[in-house]
Amino acid sequence: MNIKTLLISILLILVILTIYSNLRAEEGFQSYTQLPYGSVKTGADPIYVYRRDRYRKPYRHPFKFFSSYPYPHQEPGL
Fold first, then answer.
1. Cβ(48)–Cβ(28) under 8 Å?
2. What's the whole-model pTM score?
3. Residues sharing a CB contact under 8 Å with residue 78, sequence separation 6 or more, in sequence order
4. DSSP per residue over the chain, as a string?
């Protein structure tokens, strides 16, 4: 094997390893709705949900506005 073939094979192995490692990287984010008023949030998977009682209605409770993140929905006015 000459040096040119060796360098090409090492470069090819590095490219394959880089592509493989990038394909395996996953983001575990998912959307969820908070009750009782319907706020949409995103979180990492798995989502650990605990109970947090809300004793007051949000500011301007019946008012909702359009939000496009994480997907189009009506967000309660906070």
1. no
2. 0.38
3. 39, 58, 59, 60
4. --HHHHHHHHHHHHHHHHHHHHHH----EEEEEETTTTEEEEEESSP--------SPPTTTT-EEEE-SSSSEEEEP-
User: CA geometry: angle at 35 spanning 29 and 39, to 5°?
Assistant: 55
Amino acid identity, position 41:
K
CB atoms within 10 A of CB 47: 13
What is the residue-averaged pLDDT of the chain? 79
pLDDT digits (tens, 9 = 90+) for 20-49: 887 776 777 778 787 777 778 777 766 666
- From residue 69, how far is each of 16, 32, 36, 73, 75 by CA, in Å? 35, 12, 19, 8, 10
